[in-house]
C-alpha cells in the first residue's frame, strides 16, 4: 500500500516508486506539508513543521494563530486569517465576509484513481487515492482534497472538491487545485514556457526572486503566450542531476501557476483556475470540483521529470484507439492551397501523395459556406459543393480509392458575423449586453455554455461526419475570448462563464469521441494555443504550432516535449522558403525534425521535383521504421538550440535495445572537424551497432566517449542516427 496514515503522529505518507510526499496535522488539526522529495522509509518527519518556532519573539510560539499562519507550510492555504501569502482558497459569504480557515475532519484511502467528475484527468486501476476532508468550523462547508498516488510513475495528482454543506449560498472567489511548499539551501530556479502565435512554448529558466512570479492565462484557453506548467528546481539542478518539483494542470482554460518566495525563503508554488475572471456561486448542497494538477518530483534532474510526464500522459491520461497506434502519415492542404482549392486540386495532391507513401489527405479550412477567406461562414457547416465541384462524399470516395484515408477541419466554437447562423442568432455569441463585441480574425465566439448553442454546433459537425467516410478531424479554435458575458447567466453567475465554457467544450468533445470511437481527433488552436493535458484527454495529438520552419520547430518542440510525449506533437514537413519565417532549410532536415512528432506534410506535393519526391519516399519509410520507438521510448535532450548551435534529441527503447537520435547543426561553421556526439540513456554494458557502420560499440563508449559525426556542410544540416543492440 503506497498511502499510509499514522494515527499517533497525524502523518500521511504517500509513496510513488522513487518519491515520498508527507503531510501532517498540527495539534489544532491544521493540515501542513512536511516533505516532498526522494523516497524515504521514515514515517515521522514532523520535527520539520516548525510548530514551536517563534516568528517574531524569542519566546516559544504560544500557538498564536497569526504569526503561525503566515509561516506554516499549508496544504491548502485560505484567505483572510493571517497568512499574508497568496491563498489557494477564498470565499465570500452572503454577508460579504471572506476570512476562513480549514481544519482536518477525516480521511479515506481507496484502490484505483478515478477521473474527477465532469473533467479530464488521470486514471489507473493500480494507483491509490487518498481523500482528506477538511472543514471550516464556523461556516458550513467542506473541502475534500484527493491525491492520486501512482505505483508505476513518480506522479501524485491533486484535485479539490468544495461542498456547500451549510444552508447559505456563498461565492467561491478562488479555488486553486494544488500547492507545494519548497525550500532549498541552494536557492531555487523556475522553468515556465512562454511564446506567441507561431513561437509557442519556448523554455524560460530563471531564479525565483522574493515576491510573486507567475505565468497565467485569462484568454479562455491555455494560450500561445503562457502555459499551465511550472517546475521549481535547486539552482544547481541540470538536465541529468538535482531536485526538480513540477506541476502541470489538466485543464484548457484560464490558469494561474505561481511561485511566491516569502520572508523565510520558502517558496509556495500554486496552480489552479485563474481567480481573475472567476466567481462561482455555490448554493446550499452544491459542490464545485477544481481541475486536477499533476505533481512530479525528480531527484535526477529535468530529463527524468520529462520522462515521468511522458509516461504518465501516455498511459494514464490519453485514451482511445489511436493512443498506442502508429498514426497515418497525413498531408494537409492548408499551406499548399490556403482557401484556393477544389476537388480536382485535392485529388491531384492525393494522387501524388499516394505514390510517396502518404496515408491520409486532410482538407483544411475553406470547404463550407462561402468561405474563400477568413472573413465569413464559420457556423455554416454546409459543404460548398459549388466551390469543390463535387459532393463531399464523391471527394472522400475518390481519395479512399487511391488508398488514402480522409480527414477534415472544423472550428465548431466559432461564428462569423457574415454567416447565416449569425443572421439567425445574433444573440448566440459571447458578449456583454452593452458593448459591440470585438472581432479577432473576423470572428466571434459562440456561447457554447448554452445548451442549444453547443447542440447546434455539435450536431452540425456530426452531420458532416456521417455524410462520408471521414476518419480524422482537426478541431480548431482561432481566437481567444473577450467581451465576457452570456445571456444564459444571471448577474450572480456571469463570473462562471470562463469555466463553463471549458466544461461545454469538454462535453462536446466527449460526445464526438463517444459517437465516433474510431475517429482520430487532432486538437488545434491557431497552431498550439490549446496544447494542454486537458485536450490530450480527448485527442491523442495536438497541432503544435503554425510555424513549420525546421529551426523554429527545434525550439517549439523542445518546449512542448518538456512535458508532452512525442506521440502527441503535431509536426509536418512544409515547403521552403518557409511561410512563417522565409527561411530555407534542407528537405531532409525538415523530415528529421517532423519525425520527432506525429509526422506529416503540409505542402503541394504535386509541385515537388522528382528528387524531392524521392526524399519524401525515404522519409515515409523512415517513419515506419522509427515511429514505434519514437512513440513509446524514453526521450533524452542531449543539447538544445539556441543554447547550443548543435541541437540533439534522442529516444531510447524502454528495454534499451534500440535508440534513434536526430542532430541538427543550426549554422554552418567554417574550418571545423567532425562533431563529437555523446548519446544518452543506453545500457552501458550492452554492445550496439550504428546503421551504416560496421563497428560495434559498448553503450558506455557511446554515452561517455561518443562518436564523431562528419560531413555536416552548410546551414541547418541534420543527421539521423539509429542504433541497435547486437
Ligand atoms: C489555424 C490552424 C492552421 C489552419 C488555419 C485555418 O491557424 O492552426 O493549421 O488550420 O487555422 O484557418
Question: Can you put this structure into words, describing what you see?
Answer:
This protein has 14 helices and 39 strands. Strands 6, 7, 8, 9, 11, 12, 14, 15, 19 and 20 form a ten-stranded antiparallel beta sheet that branches. α8 (451-466) packs parallel to α9 (497-515) and α12 (587-595) packs parallel to α13. It is globular and about 80 Å long. Residues 334, 364-365, 409, 476, 478, 524, 526-527, 543, 546 line the site of alpha-D-galactopyranose.
Quick summary:
The protein has 726 residues and is an alpha+beta fold. 20% of the residues lie in helices and 31% in strands.
Strand-pairing-aware structural class: alpha+beta
What is the top-level CATH class of the largest domain? Mainly Beta
Biggest sheet layout: 10 strands, antiparallel
Number of strands: 39
Domains, number: 3
What would the keywords be for this entry?
single chain; about 725 residues; Beta-galactosidase, Chain A, domain 5; TIM Barrel; Immunoglobulin-like; 9-stranded parallel beta sheet; 14 helices; 39 strands; about 30% strand; binds alpha-D-galactopyranose
How are the SSEs placed, and which strands pair?
Blueprint: E1 3-6, E2 11-15, E3 19-25, E4 31-38, H1 65-69, E5 89-92, E6 103-113, E7 124-136, E8 141-149, E9 155-164, E10 170-182, E11 188-196, E12 199-207, E13 211-217, E14 229-234, E15 244-249, E16 255-261, E17 267-273, E18 280-282, E19 287-289, E20 293-298, H2 301-316, E21 330-332, H3 334-337, H4 343-355, E22 360-363, H5 385-388, H6 392-401, E23 405-410, E24 414-415, H7 420-424, E25 444-445, H8 451-466, E26 472-475, H9 497-515, E27 520-523, H10 533-536, E28 541-543, H11 550-561, E29 569-570, E30 573-574, H12 587-595, E31 600-602, H13 610-632, E32 634-639, E33 646-652, E34 658-665, E35 675-677, E36 687-690, E37 696-698, H14 699-705, E38 707-709, E39 717-725
Parallel strand pairs: 21-22, 21-31, 22-23, 23-26, 26-27, 27-28, 28-29, 30-31
Antiparallel strand pairs: 1-2, 2-3, 3-4, 5-10, 6-7, 7-8, 8-9, 9-19, 9-20, 10-17, 10-18, 11-12, 11-14, 13-16, 14-15, 15-20, 16-17, 24-25, 32-33, 33-34, 34-39, 35-38, 36-37, 36-39
Helix pairs in contact: 8-9, 12-13
The structure holds alpha-D-galactopyranose (GLA).
